[in-house]
Amino acid sequence: MNKGTPVIMQMQSLISRFEFQKLEIEFKTEKNVRTFSTWNLLKVMLFAQCTTKKSLRDICATFKSISNRFYHLGINEISRNNLSNALSKRSAKLFEKLFYILLEKVQKETGSRRDKRFRFKNRLIAIDSTTISLCLSLCMWASFRSKKGGVKVHTMYDIKRQIPDFMIITEARKHDHTAVVDMPFRRGTIYVLDRAYLCLKSLQNINENGAFFVTRTKTNTQYGVIRKNKITAKTILLDQVISFTGAKASNYQEPLRLVRYKNPEDGKVYDYITNNIDLAASTIAAIYKSRWDIELFFKWIKQNLKVKTFYGRSENAVLIQIWTASIAFLLMEYIRFMSKTAMSITGVFRILGSHMMSDCKIMDLLGELPRRKQRSVRSLDIQMDFGF
What we know:
Elements: H1 7-12, H2 17-27, H3 38-51, H4 56-64, H5 70-73, H6 80-89, H7 92-110, E1 124-134, E2 143-145, E3 148-158, E4 163-171, H8 176-179, E5 190-193, H9 200-208, E6 212-216, E7 223-228, E8 236-244, E9 256-262, E10 269-274, H10 281-289, H11 292-304, H12 315-339, H13 345-353, H14 362-367
Parallel strand pairs: 1-5, 5-6
Antiparallel strand pairs: 1-3, 2-3, 3-4, 6-10, 7-8, 8-9, 9-10
Helix pairs in contact: 2-7, 3-12, 6-12, 7-12
């Protein structure tokens, strides 16, 4: 990151230009393009995400006010027409693939992180989805209900690293458990799922891949008790080995473990099922509780990035905006990790967002902040950010 380079350019430099050019060739995004390249589209969209610009007019007005810096930004010109056409015609698949290239880099360079909540070394992945509402009269392609439109972002979230591990964007009407079919499952990983994903075929798929799952039972879940295990904690009411019964029991015929947990804070009782027989029952309950991290991630994205109002109406424009928001999150988390600052990602986002056109080095901006003493997982700080 060279001195005199705007912060937005320093952020974009973390993305391999060579890999990006390969994507441009693969998806033919530079065909018949004269002035506004896809690389510049990425730059503008990252700027808009980090500064939470409200509209195309707002973005263009900001860039026109700094037209004397176009040379340093590598931009020849920018207009609403160019930006609108780019959002509608440049393939969103490029930005999706770029997200995974950047994710692989972040995972490799940041390595594994220690989570004080757990002692086991298995990866811990939460699976859930969030619905992003759209105006049905403007986005007819996103029909969801009679008077509502939207898309659904199905996400695998790495709880220990605190970053997404896999994402799929589908129409909002698609049920959660049907998206699990397209998700990759790795041997030895623990997947924690909401009970909306309680589909016996999905659980069998996870089990066959040598992975573990933790989920909740539904009110109509039918099972028979094989044997009872010894209870080792006051908060655990039951620890049993069970097997599914009922019409679809043939979809998962192997024994399972049922853990009944009583929350000491409010007295509520929860039933969890898992195919892991080695971990303590209290650890199974703690694993499911950690699923809340993915809810905090969704809330952070919606509070801080532009994924609730959109710059374009087409499906392609909406997808580009969601994928660039995800890329911006990865860049912020990567910068936070490399700077070793103790500040939350929200603090880093605010500091960099207010200095997008500054020539200061990113590490200088974050250098005076308190440093963390050790690499440990830090949950997204959401509770204090409701006014942002």
